[in-house]
Amino acid sequence: MATKIYTKTGDDGRTGLFGGGRVEKDHVRVEAYGDVDELNAVIGAARAVEMMPRVDEILAPVQRDLFAIGALLATPQPQKHREQLEKARLSDTRIAQLEQAIDDGEEELEPLKAFILPGGTPKASALHVARTVCRRAERSIIRLQRTDEVPQVVIVYLNRLSDLLFVLARVANRRAGAGEVTW
Fold first, then answer.
1. pLDDT tens for each residue of 132-151
2. Which residues, including other chains, have CB under 8 Å from residue 13's CB and lie 6 or more apart?
3. 42-82 confidence digits (pLDDT tens)
4. What residue spans of the chain are helical by DSSP H?
5. Contact predicate 87/30, CB 8 Å
6. What are the domain boundaries of the chain?
7. For FRET with 136, which of 37, 63, 85, 144 sits at 20 to 30 Å CA-CA?
C-alpha cells in the first residue's frame, strides 16, 4: 500500500521539524521556510509562463537552492544533522553565479534612470511577483535570525536573488519588446 499524503499529525496546529521536535505552525521558523517554499512555487509558475530559455535555465538551479534553504531553515540543530544536510549546502560560488547572471542581464538593458512599475508581459509580471515574495522570505528569515542561528549565506543568497528576479523581469520585457512604465 502506498504511503498517504495526509498523516493527521498536524491536525493540532503543530508541525514536525527536521531532526525532531514539534512547533506551532505559525512559529517564526515555519513562517520562514514556508515563505521560501512559496517563493519556490512562484518561481516555478514564472518559469511556466512564456518559456524563455536563458531565463529559465538560470531559475532551474535556483529552485534546487531554495529546497536546500528550506531544509536548513527546517532544522533547528544543524550541527547534529550535518551529514543529512550535506545535500542542502549552499556556497559562495552560487552567490557569485547569481551575481554573474545579474551582470549578464544588465548588459542587455538600458541603465535604470527611474523606478519602474512592476508589470509588462505575463513572464515579467510573474518574475516581479517572485521578487516580492523573495523579499518577504528574506524578512522572515531575518526575523528568525533574531532568535536562532541562520547561516549568513542564506540571507545573502536571497538578497541577490531578489535583485536577479528584478533584472530578469526587465530582461523578459525587453526581449518581448514591451516597454517599462516609470514612476
1. 999 999 999 999 999 988 88
2. 24, 25
3. 999 999 998 888 899 999 999 999 988 998 888 766 554 45
4. 28-48, 53-73, 92-107, 122-145, 152-175
5. no
6. 17-75+87-108+121-175
7. 85
